[in-house]
Amino acid sequence: xxxxxxxxxxxxxxxxxxxxxxxxxxxxxxxxxxxxxxxxxxxxxxxxxxxxxxxxxxxxxxxxxxxxxxxxxxxxxxxxxxxxxxxxxxxxxxxxxxxxxxxxxxxxxxxxxxxxxxxxxxxxxxxxxxxxxxxxxxxxxxxxxxxxxxxxxxxxxxxxxxxxxxxxxxxxxxxxxxxxxxxxxxxxxxxxxxxxxxxxxxxxxxxxxxxxxxxxxxxxxxxxxxxxxxxxxxxxxxxxxxxxxxxxxxxxxxxxxxxxxxxxxxxxxxxxxxxxxxxxxxxxxxxxxxxxxxxxxxxxxxxxxxxxxxxxxxxxxxxxxxxxxxxxxxxxxxxxxxxxxxxxxxxxxxxxxxxxxxxxxxxxxxxxxxxxxxxxxxxxxxxxxxxxxxxxxxxxxxxxx
Length: 401
What we know:
Blueprint: E1 6-10, E2 17-18, E3 34-37, H1 39-45, H2 48-52, E4 83-85, H3 87-93, E5 97-102, H4 112-125, E6 130-134, H5 138-150, E7 153-159, H6 164-172, E8 176-180, H7 184-198, E9 201-202, H8 211-215, H9 217-225, E10 233-237, H10 242-257, E11 266-272, H11 277-283, H12 310-320, E12 323-327, H13 329-343, H14 349-363, E13 372-377
Parallel strand pairs: 5-13, 6-7, 6-9, 7-8, 10-11, 10-13, 11-12
Antiparallel strand pairs: 1-2, 1-3, 4-5
């Protein structure tokens, strides 16, 4: 057993409770469900020192994860990704304490492996044999890989513009993969019809409660890596926003357990100007976003015109005194190359967007030079080779430099 302290599921909108050991999707009111734990019992039996003796994976936090029986854990070694101090670019641009949490080193090359590991493990435990989901690429690649390891059949639908590498991931791991001439929202409609027809498990973003539990471990790790002193600002590239929701959830759980103090990091939702529904909603002081028409950006992973959990993303921003900001593609690509040139860190465009946003927020005075700032790089730049257009001079064998 894992000694999970999971107690139940609840709806953050209407407050309805659900049995965590029955297969659940959305609340009857249409809201995503959240996993709840007996945190007081967990705090009485689990200590920070206990973690020091455990494996460097997200399963080190198993009491605060939803898998009952360790035999159902499906893992490729995900979690405990590096927290890297970016000293050269920080010094050049006036950041005294700039860090990157690098999810590009995780299995399948993106933070999506966290949600897939926990989501697939719990699906296996609950008897799921087939699932379906829409994706912009990385989530599909991750869920296809973990589904293969669990013996679960995955059906994945993604836009034709999805990156080639993530398309190949879905294919090589045996998923039934399809391309649609449209956006992830169009893929979602196709998946919805297929689920209604075939009775598959819906693994769409936030339509099952467990993906967020894997993503929240980024928050646990950051707190642990900083010696349980949280940073001042965390910038997160936001499409569906599950990672930002998860980090916020993790921090609240750690507070309730008494593991961190009252101060929370200011959470920043970073979007692209070509698809910024959360930013628009935040600027207008709203609690939910509107559908973003004609969405397009080089940061393909955050091209989500309308997030199911938008109200939870906005709640996390408001609760922590954070903000939402959009940056254009030119700034994203400039930040990507600058980070690689000065730090040797080849970030995905979504991750690079966080540095472009940090520069803008520092210029505005919202970020101060002495703030401890964390950029969440959600994936490896190597998975997006088309974002870089190198020009090489060709040499002959007897040429000199």
